[in-house]
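Office hours follow-up: a student asked to see two folded examples consecutively, so here they are.
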Amino acid sequence: MPPSRLIPLVIGLSIILGLVIWLIDAILRLYAQVAWTSPFLGNILILMILGLLGLLIYAFFYYFNLSTRPKLSKQAQQRRIKLPEQKTATATTNLQAIRRQVQQIQDEVAKQALLQKSQAIEANLQRGRLHLVVFGTGSAGKTSLVNALLGNRAGRVAPTMGTTQIGETYSLALPGLNREIVITDTPGILEAGIAGTEREKQARQLATEADLLLFVVDNDLRQSEYEPLQALAAIGKRSLLIFNKKDLYTLEDTDMLLTTLRRRVQPFIPAEDVLAIAACPQDIQIQPGLRVKPDPEIDSLVKRLITVLRADAEDLMADNVLLQSQRLGETARQLIDQQRRREATQIIDRYQWVGAGVIAVTPLPVLDMLATAAVNAQMVVEIGRVYGCELDGERGKELALSLGKTFVSLGIVKGAVELLASVLQFQVTTYLLGKLIQAVTAAYLTRIAGKSFIQYFRQDQDWGDGGITEVVQQQFQLSRKDQFIQAFVKEAIAKVVQPLSDTWNLTPETSPEEALAPLPDLSQISPIPLELIPQDNPLPDRPYADWETPPKYLDDW
């Protein structure tokens, strides 16, 4: 210690020592004076003085510890206090946005389900109830663990898989925690059969709604167990990994398994959250014919639960409410997107067959003109309106023209003609093929154009990184699939070829002279029967009703 600090310390201690000696002398003289007249009052006086001295010493050390304890910065204190508040405020904002989104959904059943779910999330947020979920493979000891925590038989216990058929919820009380806690026992995962698959689906759904997850295993983690545990961690679920049935292993084997489990889950579960218990120990034989049931060995789990919930309960609930609101919002967006796609596809169906009928009776002199004729500007405007984009006629024409030019530059018109001609030549006569190939191709191009514009409006009027060329090529490749082509040509024959064949009175025995006859007067042609789909009815099932595979979302784990 440097002299600059040593000298003041010695002086200070000397002063304190002198004051203590003076204080002791003063107390003794005071006691002698009081005790001379009343020894009892003298003793009381001494006790009061000693108590006062003890209190002063305690206060000194208490405030000394406070002064030497490292202090959090103001920003750190604000983050520590306001972090759950920020999350719950964000969740509340999300729920309000969901209610506005839900009003756009036409399906009343889906709308009411989403509204009820949002109300349940908000009620749970206000109630502040902590939700624990026990999750794991069938008969790993989940129900036994719940029984041990509750102190009674909450559910049926059996060695076979499938004991727990539905999620069952109970109220749980833990020492030192004055809050409402519920615990849910879920069906086991990885069970065989259709019923087992359904129960696993329910268990996974319950797991995603937990504030804290208790993942139970009875041996080393299998890949089929590791994957759902990792997926739950990826969406933000806090988990305790519980190795149950340790009474079936030696101490050395238990320690080895714990070490292995901690190493496997180290990227997303801390080592202190991996525990070994015996929720329902095996009976012990004391003597022949006498067996006793040991008490559950779950003290380590109870202590860890209390520690985690005391420190992180608010954050766990806030994280879960935020996650639930985000997942619900994603569900609402998916429903709205599916609804819009159905409406847009109905518009495409209407325009593709109307356009085909017009071109069938008025063929175009130049093949490349099909690209422009197939992309109807009004169709673009109507699809945009479905997606909440109000376009005027000029903007619709501009978008239609740009897509038509893309068709020509990519050679899609020629490719479509060759593709459809190769299929139609086995379906209709040569005479009809020559007259109707443009009409069927126009309908085909209209569908590609409509699907391309659906992609454009879904991405907020953006063609994406690859631009319009990549979107058109992608839709053209999707439309070349054999299943779609066969279904499309079959419908084209029913909606275009057959009506015009009946109008022109053509038969397989039509002579070449009749085939070369001029087209009949357009005013004499009866209207082409079209099956227009009302906007408020669902799209009929067809093999090509939707070409694209819906995207996978993070919660589809």
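And the second, which I mentioned at the end of office hours:
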Amino acid sequence: MNHRFHTTATRAAFAMAALPLAISFSAQAQYAEATTELAALDPVVVTAALAPRTANESLSSVSVLDEATFRRQDPTSLTDLLRGQPGVDVTSNGSFGKSGSVSLRGAPGDANVLMIDGIRLRSATAGSAAFQYLDPRMFDRAEIVRGPRGSLYGADAVGGVIQLFTPDGDEQGPQPNISIGGGSFNTQRVSAGISGREGGTRYSFAGSHFNTDGQPVRQGGEDMGYDNTSALARMSHTFDSGAEVGFLALRARGTTEYDESGSLATTDYVQQVAGIYGELPITDNWRSRLTLSEARDESVNHHWGSILDTQTRTARWENTLSAGVHELIVGAEYLNDSVAGSITGDMPWDGPYDVEKRDNKAVFGQALLDFAPFAVQASLRYDDNEAYGDEVTGSLALGYELDNYHTLRASIGTAFKAPSFNDLYWPNSGNPDLNPEKSETVEVGVRGQYSQWFWDVAVFQNDYDDLIAWAPTPSGLWVPQNVNNARIRGAELSSGVEVNDWVLQAAYTYLDPEDQETGNRLARRASQSVRLDADRELGDWSLGGSLVAQGYRYDNASNTQRLGGYGLVNLRAGWQFAPLWTARVTVENAFDKEYETSRDYINAGRAGFLSVHFGQ
């Protein structure tokens, strides 16, 4: 099976590499046409450089999942959208709200940053974000930026940044939407919202509920259910002077069931972000923005008696100064992590964390310089954290337009991953003397951008120092220590086309993650992955499907527990049976493939869902 996957992946990679050559001449002849398709294939992104840039101009490896993608695929989990995207790997302990990890370029889940409309969300105890608790219907866009962004976002932006965007209400007048549906595993799903724009005011309000009995996560086990209730409120106003104010509030809560040594156990959770901002044009060439926000990650485990509650409060001040085609962004950030009230369990050795708060103060700057055909992006950031000291990160990216269609880029950047509260202060086993993990990444890439096609190739190497791992002290006590070094090399290839009512996307990732102390592969990283998405509009009908194939991985550091590769096929269809009314059918894992990304944890088999939608 692994040999067949390797052959399939190799052929797919060859075909994708040949695709831009095969279409280059016809695409160049059509360059002046189809500006709408060009905007979709070369979208404007803000995550990569803190300023609006097209994907081609960003000098970054970036992928965008737009509103049309969210609507067509209508996934039950965000990880279904992310799995197999360029540089993205997903592991999970089962389907429907079960714990897992999203990895960018082989970086562990706690070495990537998740942001929601500019507000960071993650657990300060575990260090990573709980993607599994976020309802995809609360979002209409995702930007996936691969490569270090520590000099822009601070700690943990080692593998990259994923930013999710909620609807902002850009259509004139109120736009209501309602969706109701259900399917396999006794799943029920309902959502409703209203968004729009009146003069300078934009608004978006939405709510959703998802409930399922789930499936067993272990062989022979019982069904493990999950429910999620989410609410969103967002509003902004732009004044005639160009000043803008706004607020955002997003909250998700529910319960997930999981297998604890063969028995059913439950965890209650809350995911929440809230923020207000104000942006003011000081002069024609100077805009200043202040954002105050709070993020919360809470879980109550009824089996272990633990309460883990993270509250992160942030004040961020950004200033953008322009001089013709050049821009300078400078700012400061204050961040406070609190785990006050957290209890690690009800056993005698459990208790509160030894330290419950930490502050981080930072200043940062970035220059975006355009000397066409050359472009330069340089950034620097200084962080001072009361738990682990100060860190300086930086990056430099150079771009060169080979012609109207091709851009060459090269970059080098540093980043660091902060030790979590679990690493530092877990009762009786934390190590408060830990240093952050450090990384340095070098990348070279080239992008071809045409009127109806694009392709992008990148190769990279990321060197890690002071990786945190459990190791014995001289007294024999096992605690987290800075002991390991690693090197991750890889290549990414992506391509897309929109033509004759077809939307096609393809991605291939190769990864070589090596523990330099042992020479083994780092655990839970797939060696190769391929993703193909194809959708076709047929009048009132739409048809589509996705293929995701991944190579083998090892579940442990010693590489003795091998998990085989797998391939998944998801199918979808839509029918607009009346103005503003659409019915959608999705079939996930259509061939009922049994597969594992974590040892002894199986994911859901074939699942079908039917839903009816009203709205734009």
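Two things to take away from it. The radius of gyration is 24 Å. The longest strand covers residues 478-499.
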